[in-house]
Amino acid sequence: MIPRVALPWRNGLRLRVPSGSRGCCRSAHNTLRNDDGRPIVISPPLVSLDIPDDWAPCPAHSCFSSPISSSNEQTATVIDGKFIADEIKTRIGSEVRRMKEGIGMVPGLAVIVVGYRRDSQTYVRNKMMACAEVGIKSMVAQLPEDCTKDQLLGALSSFDGDPSVHGILVQLPLPQHLDEGKVLDVLRPEKDVDGFHPLNMGNLAMRGREPLFIPCTPKGCIEMLLRSGVEIAGRKATVIGRSNIVGLPTSLLLQRHHATVSIVHAFTKNPELITCEADIVVTAAGVPNLVRGNWLKPGAVVIDVGTNPVEDPSSEHGYRLTGDVCYEEAVRVASAITPVPGGVGPMTIAMLLSNTLDSAKRVYAFT
Amino acid sequence: MIPRVALPWRNGLRLRVPSGSRGCCRSAHNTLRNDDGRPIVISPPLVSLDIPDDWAPCPAHSCFSSPISSSNEQTATVIDGKFIADEIKTRIGSEVRRMKEGIGMVPGLAVIVVGYRRDSQTYVRNKMMACAEVGIKSMVAQLPEDCTKDQLLGALSSFDGDPSVHGILVQLPLPQHLDEGKVLDVLRPEKDVDGFHPLNMGNLAMRGREPLFIPCTPKGCIEMLLRSGVEIAGRKATVIGRSNIVGLPTSLLLQRHHATVSIVHAFTKNPELITCEADIVVTAAGVPNLVRGNWLKPGAVVIDVGTNPVEDPSSEHGYRLTGDVCYEEAVRVASAITPVPGGVGPMTIAMLLSNTLDSAKRVYAFT
After folding, report:
1. Percentage of residues in chain A with pLDDT exceeding 90?
2. CATH code of the domain in which A158 resides
3. Scanning every residue of chain B, which has its alpha carbon at the shortest distance from the alpha carbon of A82?
4. pTM of the model
């Protein structure tokens, strides 16, 4: 007979973040104590657990050969995201023409930008140019940095009521004084071409369901894997980073494709040990050179979502973009890898165009 | 200069399910070919990938000592789910009384049952009895096996319009002719005490958001871990099974608590290798004795959600309930383990009562 032990849950429960936790910079909770009265159950509200994933910065901004890659030979095929994205955009363009000729309509995308962050302005300009390329009508609402929530919601609802707009996106991040979550909740799932609405996210997560839109970057990652002939089902995949925009939906999407998924984040101890078991690594931590060559299983497929500006006096603007992966090392260990730039970036925009086209097709029942 | 290779995505893409995939019984897709015209992007609809997780049945229904546990000594503390659930129910009862005395209202739970499956009837009876214990008003709509979708939706909307009903649950599984997804979509998230609505699931998944309700079994699992003083943040957790009801929300919830989560399913090759790295194992595969002693890391905490009826001539009804874990082996390897029965089961019902109370408190703004 096995003794049953009533566990000492009265004695205060600790949600400790292990100090050794690699890249973890602060504790999730100092102490989580059981209240003798209310609340009935002691689980804290989930938002009370939400802490930014602050990764420890990597010492080397440009990295060097890791032990695992003794040779200087490149083994990896470079997955050319620009090439694949161009192929997709060509097809989208022909579909848009077919729609215009068939029913006299074109898809419409509206972008709302608040403030003048340089990176946001660049992203928006690139999206507009891509829309123009394929014949999608695009419009931008540029709001001042200090705009009120009501001004933002006003812009949203005017686009929402415009039947020529089939997709609306709010360029993130928003200034501190605006609550992204509350803003995105107002955006109808039917026009949520970014796929960030919780209803679309829930339908992405749940088997047997289909979201109206899959977030663009995760969709682009899977697209590159599929078009590169990479087997996903039954393979081990490690996703590094768990943001609502990339890491989370990528892990959900890989799982819908029957990968065995592990999610690494800033609280993960020894992330390299989990990463080096993966056949597929998707990294979206936003930490330059976080993933070294010796983090990778030889032959792994590496999708690098990171686009981190690092100083580079030799480059025109004094900085260059680098991924989360130490490319020079990884390219000698992986079987295939996406470059930064020219990998995931172009795919994200192509998927945005694809989502906008799909939305217009749905609205007009155009097949 | 690294050569860029345009990958041969024209040559037909294969989404193969590896034949060696443990417990995987059929292929997700025979061939996934790229169409030269539409669709624009070749990713298939996600639902077209959905295949039941058919686990290979385990040979032994009663299992024996595994290599890792040479001694016959029990090392594991038994996490007494019934004890913890009783504690929670006592507190819920006092809260219900406080509400009744304070505002003259009590929480109300409505259950809709279709057909007469023996297990469903038992579950519903247990839920009703638990409601009675704590003073929650409960009502059941029993519909015939062959009821139409409209009859079911009619029952749903009548409960939905009843202000004395704060929680509605549809007992699953539904008969084949009724689409669970479509039915659950009709249930308003505000009364979705099971937490199965995609909007609640999306808000469970996304950091910075709070679902109105967390699914009862996953919430019960976390509750047992927290009340047992088990550290979650920064620990490795493996969830076995990815159902919308248990596996998926459990993995999302563990991640919100900052565990490093891996999800094992029927397509996973060598699931034991992933499981034996975990500090916390939650298993919800529905396969008796799937998890052997040698699947576990010594000192792991094991939460066994499985409740599988197996033949047992010696027992009163000719069968007994067993978990997914080979208990006799695991109890010698783990540091803590939940028994079946008497582990997760009682917690699930306690969390349902807790969700129903929370819903009523929200409606009446009762704190």
Report:
1. 76
2. 3.40.50.10860
3. B6
4. 0.88
